[in-house]
Amino acid sequence: MQTMPLLEVRDLKTHFFLDEGTVRAVDGVSFDIRSGVVLGVVGESGCGKSVLARSIMRIVRPPGRTIEGRITYDRGMRRGAAGDFVDLAQMPIDGSEIRDIRGSEITMIFQEPMVSFSPVHTIGFQIIEGILQHETDISKDEARNRAVEILRRVGIPNPESRIDQYPFSLSGGMRQRCMIAMALASDPNLLIADEPTTALDVTTQAQILELMAELQREFGMAMMLITHNLGVVAQMAEEVIVMYLGKIVEWTDIDTLFDDPKHPYTAELLKSIPRLRREGQAERLTAIAGSVPSPYVRPSGCPFHPRCPQAVAGLCDVREPELVQVGERHVVSCLLYSDGASNGAAEMETE
Ligand code: SF4
Asked: Between the chain's N and C termini, which has fewer beta carbons within 10 Å?
C-alpha cells in the first residue's frame, strides 16, 4: 500500500454514554483509505460500521462522542499537492473547518434519502444550496446548470423540469439517484455510502450499484462503501474491512478475503452467503452460531469467542487479540495468528 493515504484512521473510539451503560460502538479502529480506491466495510447490524462513517463525517451527536483517536485527512490531494494534513477528530463538530470539508470534500449517501432531503424544498434547491455553500465564486444560474448536468449524469430523465420537484414526488430509486447527484455535485475526494441500496428493490439496487461504480471511476474519488451484503462488496470494492462489535477483525484486498479468509468470523460470514452451483452440487448454508451480544455487556477476551467455532478455552475468553499482519496487505485480529506476528495497522500503513 502506498505511504500517503487520503484518510488515515488510528485507534478511533466513539462511545455512546447512556443511562443503561456505555456502548463502545467504535472501539479502537485503525485503517487507511487510499485515493481513488473503493473500501468496503462489512459486518452484521450493530457492529459499528455506520457509527464509524458518522465519526469520520463528525456528525455523531450526544450521547455519542469520539473520545480518542486520529482521523488524518490530506486536504492537499484536492489541489494536487498532497501533504496538507488535518485531523478531523480534533475539529469541533459544528466548526467552520469541518463544515467546509463535510458536504464538499467528503460527502455521504445514506440508506434512506427521505431522511437526508428536506421534504419542504425541491431537489434542485438542495443541490444548488450545497454547491453555493462551498463555492462562493459561481452564480446561482451556473450552480443550477451544474445541478441539471449532474442530475442528467445520474440518470434522471428530463432533469430541467425534475430539478424543481420535491423529494416525495420521486420514486425510491430516483431519490437515491438525486442523493448521489447531491453527493457528487462538489466533486468530492471521498464518498461515504452507508447501505446505499438496502432500501431499494433488487432491480433498482443493481442499477444504482452499476451507476455508483461508473461514477466512482469517472470522478476518480475514493469510496467507503458500508454494507452487510458481501455480494455488493465483491462487485464494488478493492479492499475490505470486516467489523465485529466495534472492532476491525480483518482488513485485506477483495480477492484474498474471498479466497483465503483468516478470521473465523469472516469465514463464517462467507459460509452464510448463497452461491450459484451446478445441479447436484447443492450445499447447505450455515448461519453464524449465537447472536451479537448485548452492546452493554461485551464478552471478555476476544469479543467473538462465545460464537467462534475455533475458540480456545482459557485463551480466547481471557486475552484480547490485536490486529496483526498475516500476509501482504492482510491483517487480522485473532489469537490463532498472534504469535510472532507484527503490528498489523502499522505494517499496512507503511507498505
Ligand atoms: Fe476465535 Fe479465539 Fe480467534 Fe477470537 S481469538 S476469533 S475466539 S480463535
From this structure: C
Q: How many residues are present in the chain?
A: 351
CA separation, residue 219 to residues 35, 75, 150 (Å)? 11, 17, 12
Q: What is the pTM of this model?
A: 0.90
Cα dihedral value 248, 249, 255, 256, nearest 10: 140
Whether 263 contacts 311, CB under 8 Å: no
DSSP string of 144-160, one letter each residue: HHHHHHHHHHTT-SSHH
Tell me the pLDDT tens digit for each residue of 207-256: 889 999 999 999 889 999 999 889 899 999 999 999 999 999 999 999 99
Q: Which atom of ligand 1 is least distant from the CA of 319?
A: 5
Nearest to 344 by CA among 335, 336, 334, 332: 332
Separation of 51 CA from ligand 1 center, angstroms?
Answer: 24
Cell digits of residue 204? 433498482
